[in-house]
Amino acid sequence: MLASFFIFMTSCQSAQELKSEQYFVEGYQLYTTHCSNCHQADGKGMSNLYPPINGSAALADKAFLACIIQNGMTDKIKVGGRDFNRPMPPNKKLTDIEIAEIVSFVTMKWKKDSTFTDIETVQAALKNCKVY
Ligand code: HEC
After folding, report:
1. What gap in Å lies between CA 48 and CA 45, rounded to an integer?
2. Where is the Cytochrome c domain (predicted)?
């Protein structure tokens, strides 16, 4: 009884780990195509033009991340004590799952999240986006 419960727990965890790896790899590719031109491969941004994602407080807010990936942003913002006010373009063609993969990649890579961000989290966020 106890033993079979244990086996269930273990296989459940590795499914989660497998999915995290998949999202990370897919997210990395999407980041390279859609984000790294501006924010750079190392996520550190570019001078006063493009803010860093690596080290940004924005990584703590997955709803914000999902919304700006889809809709872009035009606000003035301060990241790491520096001002940025260029517009970030929207990505209207990305699917919800692709957005979840990008959110997973940036939060696992630069906030050391141990697991992926699921599509349900992203879809709930996208229903309630503000204009940034
Ligand atoms: C054309 C350049 C460009 C591209 C491509 C781009 N961004 Fe941005 N991004 C910006 C700019 C400029 C800002 C600051 C916007 C502002 O000041 O309102 C920004 C802001 C951000 C922020 C909030 C500030 C911060 O760094 O914490 C995040 C997070 C972010 N972008 C992530 C992404 C992700 C993920 C992608 C790919 C889906 C992406 N960006 C694609 C230019 C870009």
Report:
1. 8
2. 22-110
Determine the distance separating the centroid of ligand 1 and the alpha carbon of 8, expressed in angstroms: 41
pLDDT of 33-57, one tens digit each? Answer: 999 999 999 999 999 999 999 999 9
Q: For 14-130, where are the E strands, in sequence order?
A: 77-79, 82-84
What is the rounded distance in angstroms from the CA atom of residue 127 to the CA atom of residue 63?
Answer: 10
Decide whether any atom of ligand 1 lies within 6 Å of the 56 Cβ: yes
Beta carbon of 108 within 6 Å of any ligand 1 atom: no
CATH superfamily entry for domain 15-126 = Cytochrome c-like domain (1.10.760.10)
Q: What is the mean pLDDT of residues 16-35?
A: 96
Please tell me the residue having the least CA distance from ligand 1 atom 37: 35
Q: What is the mean pLDDT of the chain?
A: 93
Q: What confidence tens digit (pLDDT) does each residue in 71-128 have?
A: 999 999 999 899 999 999 999 999 999 999 999 999 999 999 999 999 999 999 999 9
Q: Which atom of ligand 1 is nearest to the CA of 74?
A: 18
How far is residue 111's CA from residue 98's CA, in Å, rounded to a whole number?
Answer: 19
